[in-house]
Design a protein that fits this description.
four-stranded mixed sheet; globular; alpha/beta; single chain; seven-stranded mixed sheet
Length: about 400
């Protein structure tokens, strides 16, 4: 019995998998069980920020596995502390809570916002505004926070206290505000919602409202963070620092980690016993994440990401099938004129290129370390498929 047959027999069918069994990877290419190679433009949905099995990352992870693989958070350990110090120094935040995923990071942010307001203003100030077309995770609470009706089914009753505003609609934002609101939660680029970049004026208005009303601005940077958009945090493009920022995906370089960063204003809201995670901040994962951040702080890295983004956009501008290109940095959405994104994905797969979709768009999230040579090879495949 092969891996596909074993999977179908024993694993719940919650994913629409492609009929490929990946076996090994190096840098920005991988191969399947038959030895066929693929250029990766998906990064495991944005997680393999340094590509497959980056040498420095792998060495740090392997060394930590052989030193101390787990302690729980009843004890201190150096990798967790080192990562926290580096994260706070690079982002300007005061403190961090570790979980294992973006959904967990967002759960933490939601709890933090509601407790901040409860501690300061008492009960009844618990509503969190999120955006239509947003995506914040698949736990019951983060599904409730997600502003897409397609996700609000089957699992009733959903968690109350969320209100949805149309993205970039300042009038709708003001209409939905009242004295029960404790936070506004946004993705600067709506990833699962179609790789849609928010307007600068809309972000500026949110930041202003949150400051004036003493409500928390939460930035879900699970997909946009850690260099993906050409800045360490996407908020930097807007000159905006949210009170709380959540991270995951690219931070671990392929290992599961979530992080909820809080500024000085709300860094001490969650005290002992108010939140927790058995695996959060695991030594092995933290050792890998430190290496990811060490790469990000090198001179020229963000400029290279912007240059690669510009190259992709230039190539796509010459393709007649492309209706529009959205996103930021190496987080790109491609709207098509005639073809279906799912069909493009399958044709790219057949030709040795891994891409993603987001709603009706083709989505590209290549490893941040991809070389221009490898990027050109992948774009040759993609453009040929789009023009074919």
């Amino acid at each position: 019995m092969n891996a596909i047959e074993q999977t179908e027999l024993h694993i719940m069918s919650t994913y629409g998998r492609n009929a490929v069994t990946l076996e090994a990877g190096s840098e920005t290419t991988c191969r399947d069980e038959n030895g066929k190679s693929y250029i990766d433009f998906g990064s495991g949905i944005g997680t393999n920020s340094l590509g497959f099995c980056n040498e420095a990352w792998a060495d740090a992870v392997c060394a930590q596995v052989r030193t101390l693989q787990h302690t729980s958070n009843l004890y201190y350990h150096s990798p967790q502390a080192q990562l926290a110090e580096k994260l706070c120094a690079m982002t300007g935040y005061s403190k961090v809570f570790y979980g294992n995923s973006g959904a967990e990071a967002n759960e933490c942010a939601i709890k933090l916002a509601r407790k901040y307001s409860f501690d300061k203003y008492g009960a009844g100030r618990h509503t969190i505004i999120t955006l239509v077309n947003s995506f914040h995770g698949r736990t019951l609470c983060t599904l409730s926070a997600t502003g897409q009706d397609v996700f609000h089914n089957f699992f009733f009753p959903f968690v109350e206290g969320f209100r949805y505003v149309k993205a970039n609609d300042i009038a709708d934002l003001h209409e939905k505000l009242d004295d029960t609101v404790c936070a506004i939660m946004v993705e600067y680029v709506q990833g699962e919602g179609g790789v849609c970049l928010l307007d600068a004026d809309f972000i500026k208005e949110i930041r202003s409202i949150c400051t004036e009303r003493d409500i928390l601005m939460i930035a879900d940077e699970v997909q946009t963070g850690i260099g993906r958009t050409g800045k360490l945090l996407a908020g930097e493009h807007f000159g905006c620092m949210a009170d709380v920022t959540t991270l995951a995906k690219g931070l671990g370089g392929g290992l599961p980690i979530g992080a909820c960063l809080a500024n000085e204003k709300c860094a001490d809201v969650l005290g002992k016993g108010s939140h927790g995670s058995t695996f959060g901040g695991n030594p092995v994962v933290c050792a890998g994440a430190v290496k990811v951040l060490e790469y990000m702080e090198q001179d020229g890295v963000m400029d290279e990401i912007e240059a690669k983004s510009a190259y992709i956009r230039e190539r796509l501008s010459a393709v007649s099938e492309v209706a529009a290109v959205s996103g930021k940095g190496l987080m790109i959405g491609i709207a098509l004129k005639e073809k279906k994104a799912a069909d493009v994905l399958q044709q790219c797969l057949e030709q040795g290129l891994l891409v993603l979709t987001a709603k009706d768009k083709v989505r590209l999230l290549p490893p941040l370390v991809i070389s221009m040579e490898e990027l050109a090879k992948g774009m040759d495949i993609l453009c040929n498929v789009l023009e074919g």
